[in-house]
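Need residues for this backbone.
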């Protein structure tokens, strides 16, 4: 049984335990937290509690256990996809924003996997997970852009190896707050779980994984910048955490920044994908059109997406 333990800090003191659990475990819905509390899965200072409205004291320890979920199979749903590339081994999708990659607790509908099951007759099952067929890597729900799907187990296995060997090159576009002194720079450090906010990742000094991002300013106006980002590692929330660390959070990113009047989701788009096909050895270079909300935000802010500058030598 999975268990998460965390302490009550100053900002959580005198607040309801159900509110603080949801803050620290954002993937759990309020109803599910209520279920956990009512069914003896939550302890406070090692004692089972059954009251959601219980007020907390500083330095108390909350222990939340999760019962084993019954394995559910994802169902096919008639959802159209922007298929950028497809052959018998793999496909590349331009994922829209506001779409989760695969089903998860209390969210088994409307995901990319539901759409894949409808649009493709074959998908890999190498990971032996009935709710993640074909999924080799992922994008955050509100990040748009290119994602590779494996149609065979052989392609899946070889794609995993390419990712580990850093032979799949991804270029992102991000609209972030503020302007940069350096127009081209590299960030290399460790990223791990944020000790103050469990739902976030953060740059840490220890107990993290190496994260490398390369940034280039494409255009800037007063207080806003359009960045090109090439990542050499694929850590969870890497670009979002790096830009928060630089004090230039992505516009619309409510987890790593603040809400925006311009947009309701983070302005991050996986724009270019460059790799050698794992079966045919053919060079594959793909570009995903910007979603409407991203393009409109650029227009509203008067930022110019200079395509020649963005593409550089990576696109033919």
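Answer:
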């Amino acid at each position: 049984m999975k268990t998460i333990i965390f302490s009550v800090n100053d900002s959580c003191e005198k607040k309801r335990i159900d509110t603080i659990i949801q803050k620290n475990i954002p993937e759990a819905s309020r109803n599910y937290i209520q279920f956990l509390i009512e069914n003896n899965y939550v302890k406070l200072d090692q004692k089972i509690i059954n009251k959601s409205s219980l007020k907390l004291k500083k330095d108390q320890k909350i222990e939340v256990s999760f019962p084993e979920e019954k394995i559910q199979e994802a169902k096919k749903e008639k959802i159209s996809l922007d298929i950028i590339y497809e052959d018998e081994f793999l496909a590349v999708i331009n994922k829209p924003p506001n779409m989760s990659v695969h089903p998860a607790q209390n969210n088994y509908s409307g995901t990319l996997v539901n759409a894949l099951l409808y649009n493709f007759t074959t998908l890999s099952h190498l990971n032996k997970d009935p709710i993640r067929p074909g999924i080799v890597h992922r994008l955050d729900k509100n990040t748009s852009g290119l994602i590779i799907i494996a149609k065979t187990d052989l392609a899946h296995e070889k794609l995993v190896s390419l990712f580990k060997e850093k032979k799949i090159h991804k270029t992102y576009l991000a609209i972030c707050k503020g302007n940069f002194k350096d127009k081209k720079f590299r960030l290399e450090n460790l990223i791990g779980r944020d000790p103050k906010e469990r739902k976030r990742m953060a740059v840490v000094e220890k107990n993290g994984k190496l994260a490398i991002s390369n940034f280039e300013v494409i255009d800037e106006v007063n207080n806003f910048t359009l960045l090109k980002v090439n990542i050499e590692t694929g850590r969870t929330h890497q670009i979002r955490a790096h830009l928060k660390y630089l004090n230039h959070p992505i516009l619309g990113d409510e987890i790593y920044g603040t809400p925006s009047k311009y947009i309701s989701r983070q302005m991050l788009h996986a724009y270019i994908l460059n790799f050698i096909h794992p079966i045919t050895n053919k060079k594959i270079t793909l570009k995903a059109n910007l979603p409407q909300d991203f393009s409109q935000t650029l227009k509203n802010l008067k930022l110019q997406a200079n395509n020649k500058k963005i593409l550089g030598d990576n696109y033919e």
